[in-house]
Design a protein that fits this description.
This protein has one domain. α1 packs antiparallel against α2 and α2 packs antiparallel against α3. With about 100 residues, it is mostly helical. The protein is about 75% helix and about 0% strand. It is elongated, with a radius of gyration of 17 Å. The chain contains 4 helices and no strands.
Amino acid sequence: MNIVLNSLALLLTFFGAYIVVMNYGCVIMTYRNKRRGIDKHYSTVPFVAQILLLLAALAFSAVPNRWLPQIWLVAVGLADISLWNLFALPFRFLFRRR
C-alpha cells in the first residue's frame, strides 16, 4: 500500500510541476509575441497545480515512509507564476495608469 500511495503522490506531483512549467512557458511566449507585435495571447491555468499538489500532500500524509518531503510540494506550488499573478491582480487594478 505504501508503494501505491507513494507512486500516486509522485504522479500527482509531476503533473502539478508540469502545469507550473507550462504556465511559465505561456507567460514567456505571451511576452515574446507582444514584443514582436503579434496579438496572440497564451493564458495560464491558476489553482490546478495547487489542487494536484494538495492531493499529493494528502496521499503522502497517509504514508509513513515518504519518498518526497512535503516541503517540495509547497515549494512547487508557490513557484507557480499564475498564482502570483492572481495575488497581484487587485494591486494592478488599484494602481493602474489611466
